[in-house]
Write a structure and sequence with these properties.
By secondary structure, this protein is of the alpha+beta class. The protein has five helices and four strands.
Length: about 140
């Protein structure tokens, strides 16, 4: 009986510690982390799958920009994105974050330069959490 009480006490303490480790709210938050969603959206763009990347945009943006036009615009760009890496994030509150991502890309320049030119750019993106899910809010 004493072993059972000790086991229950230890189990309760472990549950309490796990809740504290999860951070505010005491558990798993609905939806993926903003960093994961930001990187996944870029991975879709790198794979030339702008139609699926469109789903990561805010519902308001999607309501005013048709999916087929967005996909056509993103797919027709002269840049070829190669790799994405999370740089950092800054979240002034629990529902707003600015995420910075390092994007490796290639670009063909017509000015007599043979082959594509490779470079790196830092993209700064605003992300909003709406109903528990993170969405990218494009600047335009």
């Amino acid at each position: 009986m004493k072993n059972l009480k000790t086991l229950l006490l230890c189990s309760s303490l472990l549950g309490l510690l796990a809740g504290c480790a999860a951070g505010p709210g005491g558990g798993v938050k609905k939806g993926a982390a903003v960093e994961d969603r930001a990187v996944k959206r870029w991975e879709l763009l790198i794979a030339r799958n702008a139609a699926d990347a469109y789903e990561y945009l805010t519902p308001g943006y999607r309501a005013t920009h048709p999916k087929d036009q967005y996909a056509a615009s993103m797919s027709s760009r002269p840049v070829k994105w190669k790799k994405v890496e999370l740089m950092d994030k800054e979240c002034p509150d629990e529902d707003t974050c600015t995420v910075r991502l390092v994007i490796d890309f290639e670009l063909r320049i017509a000015a007599g330069i043979p082959g594509p030119v490779s470079s790196v750019d830092v993209q700064k993106e605003k992300w909003l959490r709406l109903k528990g899910q993170w969405y990218h809010l494009p600047a335009q």
